[in-house]
Amino acid sequence: MAGKSGRTIAHVPEKSVKKTLLCWESMLVVLFIFINIFGQGISPNYQASNVLREMPRYLAEMFLMLPMAYLLVLGEIDISVGATVCLSATMACMVCNTGAPFIVVILTALAVGTACGLLNGIILTKFTELPPMIVTLGTQIMFRGIAEITLGSGGSVSLQNTEGFRAISGRVGGLIPYVFFVLLIFAVIFTVVLAKTTFGRSMYAIGTNRQAAYYSGVPVQKYRLIVYTVMGTMAGLCALFLTAYLYGANTTTGNGFEMDAIAMAVFGGIASTGGKGRLIGGIISGFVIICLRVALGLINMNPQLILIILGILLILAVMLPNVSAQIGQMRKKAMKK
Amino acid sequence: MSEYILELKGITKIFPGVKALNNVQFQLKKGEVHALMGENGAGKSTFIKVITGVHKAEEGEMFLNGEKVDFKGPKDAQAAGIAAVYQHPTSYPDLSVAENIFMGHEIKKNGIMQWKQMNEEADKLLAQLDADFKSTAEMGTLSVAQQQMVEIAKALSTNARIIILDEPTAALTNNESEKLYRIVDKLREEEVSIIFISHRFEDMYRLATRVTVFRDSQYIGTYDVDGITNADLIKAMVGREIKDLFPKPEVQIGAELLKIEGLSRTGFYKGVSFSVHAGEIVGLTGLVGAGRTEVVESVCGITRAKEGKVFLEGKEIHVKKPADAMNLGIILLPEDRQRTGLILNWGLGRNVTLPTMGKYARMGFTDDKKERGVAKDLLESVDTKAVTIFDPASSLSGGNQQKVVVAKALGQKMKVVIMDEPTKGVDVGAKAEIYQIMGDLAKQGYGIILISSEMPEILGMSDRVVVMCNGKVTGELKRGEATQEKILELAMEKSKREEEGR
Questions:
Q1: Which ipTM did the prediction report?
Q2: Nearest-CA residue of chain A relative to B326?
Q3: A125 or B37: which carries more pLDDT confidence?
Q4: Residue A260: enclosing H or E segment and its boundaries?
Q5: Would the pLDDT of A20 be above 90?
Q6: CATH code for B4-238?
Q7: SS3 A210
Q8: Whole-angstrom Cα distance, residue B249 to residue B440?
Q9: Which residues in chain B have Cβ-Cβ distances shorter than 8 Å to A125?
C-alpha cells in the first residue's frame, strides 16, 4: 500500500567527509600521532623497538577493554574482571607448576575466567533488578578471596616451568610480540560483530532502551548472559598473556584492570550510559593511553603522577562532547543575532 | 481593574530552528474554566511553560490582574499564584502525600519541620477535594487519579488562583474523570481560574465556558463553548474537515485466528476467554486496571500466565517471550510508545526494522541497505510525517510515533496485531489516520485486538466488544448491540456487585 498523501521519505544516508573528519575517532587518531611525536620529543629512547618491548603488559589489558565496551554499550558494567584475571592467573600458574601440559594450562585460565563471567551473568539475568555494579563488586571481593586462599600464606606463586609461557610471549622478527597479533584478531572480530551484526545492533537497542528492545523481540537476557560470559573468557585470556610477562601471580595481580578497561573504552567515546560509541574508538584510545604510559615511563616519571595525568585526560575526554555542544549552541545563537 | 485575571499578548517563543509560538494571545477571566485545544505540536505545552515561567518568551507581554509581569523562573509564577498539574504527576513516590504537597514550601518553625501541622493541613485540603485517602499514605501506592488530586491539593496549598491542568483526564477512567470534573466545579465555585488542556471533547463540553484553539504555533481563535459545533472545532484545530472519524471498512470475517481459553494470572486476571477472527477488530475495553493490558502481555510472552490455553489457528501455542509470539505471528504494539514502543533517540528506520533485522541479515550480518529500503516503504505505507528515515523518533509527534510503531509490526507477516491504546495522546487528525490504517489491516485479513478506554473509538472501530472488569471478562457485545451504556454497565458490574456483597 502506498501512502495516501504520496509523501516520500528519504532513505539514502548522507556521506559527509567533514563529519567523518570531525568525529571523535578521528580526533583520537590525531591525538595518537601527537602522543608519538611528543614521546620522541621528551625521550630519545622513545623508539618503535622500545615501545613494543614495553607494550605486552598493557596489551593484555586491551583484551578486557573489548568485552567491557560491549557491556558499556549494553548499559552495564563489570568491575570484577580485575579479580577474575587474578584468579585465572593464579589457577593457571598452579596447574602449570603441577607439570601439566601447556594446553591444559591455557584451558584452565580460560575455563576459570569463563566460569567467573558465567556466574556474574547468571546472577544478573536471573535477578534482573540487581544493579551490575554492586553484584560485580560482590563477586570481585569473592574472586579475590578465592585467589588469596589458593595462593596461601605467601600470597604469590612463581612459575617453575616457564617454557610454555615463554613460547606465547615470543616476538615476530624479534620485535612485535605475538600478543599484538592475537589482540588484533580479537579487536577485528569484536569491532565487526558490534558494528555489522544483528547481535551488535541488539546490544545498542538493549543499552538504549531495554524495555523497547524486549518488546521488539530482542532476547535481552540471553545476550546479557553471553556478554558477561565472554567478558570472563577474555579475562582468562588476559591472565594468560599477563602471566607470560610476569612469570607468576600474586594477590595484587590484575588490580585496577577493570578501571583501566573502562577508562580506555570511555576515552574512546563509548558512553557508560549505554547505547553509544564504536569499538574502533576504544581501540585507538587504548593505544593512545598505552603510548602515553610508555612515553612517560621512559622518562622515569613517577607512576602515581602518570595516573594523575591519565585521570585528568579521561575527565577532559568525557567533558569534551558537552563543551563542544555548548559551543555549537552559542554559535547558533550568535548567528541568529 | 482589568476584566481578565491573566492576559497574554503577542507571545513569540523561538527554539533553535523552530518558532514554537508565533504571536499568540490568550485571556483568562476570573473564576473561568478555559479550555486550550489544538493538535499535538500546536504549541500548547510551550505556552503553558511560558505562563509558568519555565520558558521565557522572546516577544510579548503578560498581564496578571491588569499589571504587567515578567517571570524570571517557575518560582516567580508560583509566588504569583499560578500552578500547573501535569498529565503524569511528577511526584516523589516514596514520600507521603503530605510530604509531596508541601515539597518546597514546608511549614517550619525555627527551621524545624512541623509535620503534625502539615499533615493536618494536607488532610484539610484533601477533604476539600473529597479525596478517599489520608495525608500519610505513600504517594507511590496511589492511582494516577489520586496522585493528580495530590497535585491539585499542592496547588491549593500554595494559594494558587490560577491552576493549569495539562491533559489531566488522559490517564483516567470515565469514573475518575467524573470525579475530577466535580473537583474542577468546586474550584470554580471558589473563584479559582482554570486553564484546561485536553484532547477529549467531552472534557471541554462538560467543564469549559470558553475554548481557545492553537494550530501550528499560532492563535486561531477563542470561542464560547455553547456556540461552537464539534465539526467547527475540529476544523479550527486541524485546518481541514475530517469527514469520517471512524473509517471502518466492511470486511468479510474469516476463520478463527487467536483463541484464549481460561487464561489466569494470580492477582491480575482470572479465567479470561475470547477469540479473534481474520479481518475482525475486537475491542477490548474496561476501566483502567481491569487487567486488559495484563492479559495481552501474557499472550505475547511479556509475562507468563499461570493457567489457561492460547490457540493460534486451532493449534495450542506456548509463548515464553515476545520473540516467540512474533515468530508465530502475534505482535503487541504497547501503550507506552516512549518507554516500550520505540527507541526514541534512534532513527525511524532502525526502529522499524528492529524486530525484523534478522530476516534481512545473512549469517548474522545486518543488511543495512535492504533495511533502509524496507523501512522507507513501511513508513511511507503508513504515511509517516518525516523527512528522512534517519530522523530520531523523538522528533515526531505522538500520532506519527504511533504510525512508526505500527510500521514495526508490518515488516513481517503477522496474523494478529494487538494495539494497546493506539490513540492515547494522539491528536484528532492523526487519530483518523490511525483508524484508517487499522481498517486497512483488517481488510488484509489481520485479526486485530484494540485495547482502548475511549468509548467512541471502541464503538466506532470494533466488530465485537469484549468488556473486562476486575480481571474478568464480564461480557461480549456485537457491533450492533454495543452502546456506551451497556459497555459501562459491564465494565462496572463486578465492582458494584462486590461492593454490595461487602
A1: 0.83
A2: A217
A3: A125
A4: helix A257-267
A5: no
A6: 3.40.50.300
A7: helix
A8: 8
A9: none
